[in-house]
Prior knowledge:
Blueprint: H1 8-12, H2 18-30, H3 37-41, E1 75-81, E2 92-94, E3 97-101, E4 106-111, E5 117-122, H4 127-132, E6 144-146, E7 149-153, E8 159-163, E9 169-173, E10 189-191, E11 194-198, E12 211-215, E13 222-227, E14 248-249, E15 257-259, E16 264-268, E17 272-273, H5 277-280, E18 300-304, E19 311-316, E20 332-338, E21 341-349, E22 354-359, E23 365-370, E24 377-380, E25 387-389, E26 401-403, E27 417-419, E28 424-430, E29 433-438, E30 453-458, E31 468-474, E32 480-486, E33 495-496, E34 501-505, E35 510-515, E36 521-526, E37 536-540, E38 543-550, H6 555-561, E39 575-580
Antiparallel strand pairs: 1-39, 2-3, 3-4, 4-5, 6-7, 7-8, 8-9, 10-11, 11-12, 12-13, 14-17, 15-16, 16-18, 18-19, 20-21, 21-22, 22-23, 24-25, 26-29, 27-28, 28-31, 29-30, 31-32, 33-34, 34-35, 35-36, 37-38, 38-39
Amino acid sequence: xxxxxxxxxxxxxxxxxxxxxxxxxxxxxxxxxxxxxxxxxxxxxxxxxxxxxxxxxxxxxxxxxxxxxxxxxxxxxxxxxxxxxxxxxxxxxxxxxxxxxxxxxxxxxxxxxxxxxxxxxxxxxxxxxxxxxxxxxxxxxxxxxxxxxxxxxxxxxxxxxxxxxxxxxxxxxxxxxxxxxxxxxxxxxxxxxxxxxxxxxxxxxxxxxxxxxxxxxxxxxxxxxxxxxxxxxxxxxxxxxxxxxxxxxxxxxxxxxxxxxxxxxxxxxxxxxxxxxxxxxxxxxxxxxxxxxxxxxxxxxxxxxxxxxxxxxxxxxxxxxxxxxxxxxxxxxxxxxxxxxxxxxxxxxxxxxxxxxxxxxxxxxxxxxxxxxxxxxxxxxxxxxxxxxxxxxxxxxxxxxxxxxxxxxxxxxxxxxxxxxxxxxxxxxxxxxxxxxxxxxxxxxxxxxxxxxxxxxxxxxxxxxxxxxxxxxxxxxxxxxxxxxxxxxxxxxxxxxxxxxxxxxxxxxxxxxxxxxxxxxxxxxxxxxxxxxxxxxxxxxxxxxxxxxxxxxxxxxxxxxxxxxxxxxxxxxxxxxxxxxx
Length: 582
């Protein structure tokens, strides 16, 4: 534990009378305890310590004070204005202190009960980073907490640690340069005492693509680096005989999941760049023995050792993705029967909206369930999971193809969640299709970045006009328990709770509580902006709260919003909303 002086009293002067401010800050922070490895393994019910609360990625809160019977009485406890911009954040909560990562790397510690500011950290970013961050590039989807530190990734591609009691910077490292096109869109995972962080931005034509790094939490020193694009000779030649400097993409832009029983980190990987395989050099396939155009490890589940970065196994969900249909999203760990035998599963859902399950010990295929309308995959082998591609959907230069779904996906970065109450996976989904047109390079023009495709999004043919969906898939028998459909896209992650509720929000500014067994809407409130983040539930002073950040700017939400032009949101107005019972 470090012995920094509390600076919080100077920060809150002017907000509260000085004597009261001192007592308030010192009382809340003096009760703050360090977060050990054991605490991360078994978080208190009232804490939210990981991106999805627990290592298994469930995104589930066991708190049940707010339940089906009383949720209709839910009211605003307090609000807190955030830095304007895309607001895709997940607060961290421990011992009643809520930590929130604002746009452009302002981090604030807030009293979870009163909404009072305890301390604030503002990162001194280069001017060009600030200018570039006016869109959605300056938002971060999660932070981590470990011992007495908050650990986060920044908009100038550093990983930093802050003292959780004071906001003082403890250490800072730079795994790659922002000026070289690298970016961070999410924060780290702490696994077996190692800071595990994925790099993104690799659609900027960086040779050899992206990577995942492991860091010493005491110093930030890099311990290992795993390249998410297969290097020369690794796993044979899966990049169609392309040299390493011509292999682009494989961004790792969401945090991983960890299984402490097998000491394994599970991470998704994004797609190749440019998206169009004919332009990336992945089509036509080279007719050479031992060479494929699968483009490992794009669109894969990776199983890594957190101490060494060693690859234990991988499963590629969509080889040679030419549609921008990544499989980067959260991996959820459940132990449930498959064909009468309990299997330790890792479950994910990519942009295609297909729920897929693997054995998390060896990566072998288990099962899949389709949700939204899609025409890219014509068949899935039930034994191996191998997918047969509908070749009519492959985009080619000089043509426009019709594919369902498309960028930004039948499901996007807003996370799914699992409730052990119901053994059900809850998924925010979107129904739409696209007329996809490649944007080829001019003769002699070098590729310098970008997807190089235009998506003209349209409704599903013969649709009733409903774009937004929230589905409930029973993971015990793979049946659909219910499906809520509405006009506005669902643009937040989902939060199931021990009170039998599922919270989610949409582009039309509504935040809802659904019945976890029926899908009925039991409560709703209209906020000031798009609900476009990761809702959480926590406890402070023995009372349950539900928190969600709202704000405009997410590229995923704005892309879906082109399908519903009647819904118009303010350009600014990022706010953390916190609810509780009277």
